[in-house]
Amino acid sequence: MARYVKNFAQLRAGPLQSRRNGTESLTTGGVRVGLRIWPNFVNAVWCINGKRYAQAIKRVRLPYRRGGFATRFECPTCGKVTTVLFLAPGPGKFVCRDCARATRYRAWKETGRTRQPKKADNWLKWFSRQATKILAKGERSE
């Protein structure tokens, strides 16, 4: 069963973008996580119910087109490059959204609900204009 993102402790790559070395401590999802930051990886240490966990997470630097770079994490389970890792309840390690089976939008998963496109009325107006143009071309050619 899918769980929702707000219920997971998260580790985000954005705040670590400019950090090459150092230590950091953060609390996320009720879990205090200590980070030791290295140029190519991050060591994360945390405790849950008195049990200590540690994990090395690979950092990936993706170049921007016009110079600079973006820092991302590589999921230790599937190898997917992502900006956010979630503390999965089962294995007790940080993994990507897919491996943690986390979903972002609770309303989409509730029974009887479907996702509505953003600005559906604008899309319908655009579609009507396109259909009118196509029909007008068809009448002229006959």
Protein architecture, described:
The chain is an alpha+beta fold and 142 residues long. It has one domain (3-109). It has helices spanning 97-100, 106-109, 120-141; strands at 3-4, 10-12, 22-28, 31-37, 41-48, 51-63, 69-74, 81-82, 84-87, 94-95, 102-103. The strands form three sheets. It has a six-stranded antiparallel β-sheet with strand order 3-4-5-6-7-8, with no helix packed on it. The chain has a three-stranded antiparallel β-sheet with strand order 2-9-10. Strands 1-11 form a two-stranded parallel ribbon. Strand 3 and strand 4 (31-37) form a beta hairpin. The longest helix is centred in the last third of the chain and has 22 residues, at 120-141. The protein starts with a strand and ends with a helix. The mean pLDDT is 79.
Radius of gyration: 22 Å
SSE order in H/E notation?
EEEEEEEEEEHEHH
How many domains comprise the coordinates? Answer: 1
Query: Helical percent range?
Result: 10-25%
- For the secondary structure, the number of strands is 11
Which secondary-structure class do the elements indicate? alpha+beta
Binned strand content: 35-45%
Number of discrete helical segments: 3
**Contiguous uncertain segments of 5+ residues:** none
In short, what is this structure?
A hairpin with a 2-residue loop joins strand 5 (41-48) and strand 6 (51-63). The radius of gyration is 22 Å and the shape is elongated.
